[in-house]
Structures are given as structure tokens and as C-alpha cells.
Design brief:
The protein is of the alpha+beta class. The longest helix has 16 residues. 36% of the residues lie in helices and 21% in strands. The chain has 4 helices and 4 strands; from the N terminus they run H-H-H-E-E-H-E-E. The chain folds into 2 domains: 48 residues, no CATH class; 75 residues, no CATH class. About 5% of the residues have low confidence. The N and C termini lie far apart (92 Å).
């Protein structure tokens, strides 16, 4: 048996329509954060924020040690196996306009860390493409 309150069936449908938002209103309410805690929309907003924080790859933010500037006489040294090392040095520590960059890097490293044999190297560039330093793999 169906019981109707005062106002008939239309009373209930009007109340339900009050809570339904069109997509534009829903997006606006998400941006303005107007939903109460514990509600479905609040949980969706929090889930989206947490997913962005934990699932976004680091590369999106261009957060890499390649963009750090080294002091002109600073060298970063990392072990890369037995008697093998990875060096990072500032571009100003290397003679500019050298015809052979590997030879210039070897001279710079020899004067600072002793005799090493360079395996390979790569130039570190800033956002504009200017060489700011070098990463060199070498062994003794």
C-alpha cells in the first residue's frame, strides 16, 4: 500500500531533484570545496588529491639533480663499482672550446682526483640547453 504525505508524489521528486547537481554545478562545487565531510563527493575529492600525490611520476615535475648548480670547484663523487666512480663537475672546471672534450675532462679530473681513465661522459644542460656541468664515469 502506498501512502502519500501532504503535497503528493511531487513533493518527494522535488526534494530529490534539489540534491542532484548538473555536471557544471558538480565541478564548481568541487573547485569551491562545498561538500560536507564524510559525503560521497568529499571522499571523491580527497581520493583524487591523494591519487595525484602518490601516482604522478617524478618526471612530470622536472625534479632532477641535473638541474642543480654545482659550486665552481665542487665535484660530486659516487662509487660505481670496484675502482669505478661517477663524477659530476661544473662546466667552469673544464677548459672551454676544447677540441676534445674527453681530454679536457681528463685533465680537469687528473688535477683534482688523480689519474683516472674515463669510460664515458655526458653533458648536463639547463632548461635553455646551456651546458652547466658534466657527468663522467671513470675508473682507476
Amino acid at each position: 500500500m502506498l501512502r502519500l504525505r501532504a503535497g503528493g508524489v511531487g513533493f518527494y521528486t522535488n526534494r530529490v531533484e534539489e540534491y542532484l547537481l548538473n555536471p557544471g554545478q558538480t565541478i564548481k562545487s568541487y573547485i569551491l570545496w562545498t561538500h560536507p565531510r564524510g559525503g560521497l563527493h568529499y571522499d571523491v575529492m580527497v581520493t583524487v588529491i591523494l591519487a595525484f600525490i602518490f601516482l604522478t611520476p617524478r618526471s612530470v615535475f622536472k625534479d632532477s639533480p641535473n638541474y642543480l648548480r654545482l659550486h665552481p670547484n665542487e665535484i660530486v663523487v659516487r662509487a660505481d663499482g670496484p675502482n669505478a666512480f661517477e663524477y659530476e663537475l661544473n662546466a667552469s672546471a673544464v677548459v672551454e672550446n676544447a677540441s676534445d672534450p674527453q681530454k679536457a675532462l681528463k685533465e680537469a679530473l687528473d688535477s683534482l682526483v688523480g689519474a683516472v681513465e674515463i669510460t664515458r661522459y655526458e653533458a648536463l644542460r639547463d632548461n635553455s640547453g646551456k651546458v652547466t656541468g658534466y657527468r663522467v664515469w671513470a675508473h682507476r
